Amino acid sequence: MPHSKSPLFDSVPSFSFEFFPPKTKEGASALLDTIVKLQDFHPSFVSITYGAGGSSRELTRRVVTDIQSRGIPTVPHLTCVGHSEEELEQILEGYIKTGARAILALRGDEPQQRNQDISKDNFHHAYELVRFIRQWEEKQKLPYKLSIGVAGFPEGHPDTRNRIREMDHLKAKLDEGADYICTQLFFDNHAFFDYRDRCRFMGIDQPIIAGIMPVTSIRGLNRMAELSAGTNFPARLLKAMFRAGGDRNAIERVGISYASNQCAELLDEDVDGIHFYTLNKSKATLEIYNNLGINNYYDIDRLHKLNQFYNS
């Protein structure tokens, strides 16, 4: 299926943030504070994560509604593992009602309950979900075309050892109608540039957004290593982190400096966009923006186009 340019990328490079639904009142308050601070940067969009098997479905919808009400284009995640077609239709309808006009389509992690058999599920791969969304969209006769994003893995998907086959899987998602790729976090820009070159060689011309997460603590570093299996932590980053000698403020400065340099190089090499994994915190992202010298990324024409898209 040929793709059309998503209105999320009327301006390149795009800048976007990812949040997760908070589970407590304190977490909700902290997220609101973060959103208010980052809203001044007029992000291209923000994405909202979605728990394994839909464990945070209602929380996700609530956050999407809140952020949409602030006029910020919102991209909720949608995972297909553990869901029936009927459930996915209900979720899509719910997102549309909140005002969302974009989806990040993911396979998702397998449910943690060992007694849940997913072998008979309707969906096992993200390309099937993209196809389903496009078919549902056509059946609904929507007056607009949803923007669909999919995940990319510059350093390889942990479940696919064959890197050539992995690129075939990525292309399948885009051939089914996905509009852009948002990558897993990475710390080695060379891996991203190689990945981008391989995508272009495969005939993939959709935008590829670089996923960036600044390391702000040793604990956070270990957590990232657990969550992003296969991600390479370059020696220069590790050396700089441990030179800080356990000083929390120094470690945070190192992480922000490293991410700032990453982003600067990506921008110099004409990256399509940068997606910040914020962990619902604003400080690191704000400082990276300041380090990059990004001033008032505000485009009134782009905003008018997005408002037409999201209000249709």
Short summary:
With 312 residues, the protein is α/β, with parallel strands linked by helices. Helices cover 46% and strands 14% of the residues.
Characterization of this structure:
α9 packs across α10. The protein has a single domain (7-311), classed as TIM Barrel (Alpha-Beta Barrel). The protein is globular and about 60 Å long. It contains 11 helices and 8 strands. The protein has helices at residues 25-39, 57-68, 85-98, 126-140, 163-175, 189-201, 218-227, 235-243, 248-268, 283-292, 300-311; strands at 14-19, 45-48, 74-79, 102-106, 147-152, 180-185, 208-212, 273-277. Helices cover 46% and strands 14% of the residues. The mean pLDDT is 85. The chain has an 8-stranded parallel barrel with strand order 1-2-3-4-5-6-7-8, surrounded by 5 helices. The protein is of the alpha/beta class.
How many extended strands? 8
Question: Which CATH first-tier class would you pick?
Answer: Alpha Beta
| Spatial sequence of strands, sheet with the most strands | 1-2-3-4-5-6-7-8
The main pleated sheet reads as:
8 strands, parallel, barrel
The end-to-end span amounts to 23 Å
| Structural class by SSE content | alpha/beta
Question: Could you name the CATH topology?
Answer: TIM Barrel
Residue share in β-strands: 5-15%
Shape: globular
Helix content: 40-55%
CA gyration radius, whole angstroms: 19 Å
* Count of folded domains: 1
Which architecture would the CATH scheme give at its second level? Alpha-Beta Barrel
Roughly what is the average pLDDT, rounded to an integer? 85
SSE order, as H and E? EHEHEHEHEHEHEHHHEHH
| Low-confidence regions | none
Number of helices: 11
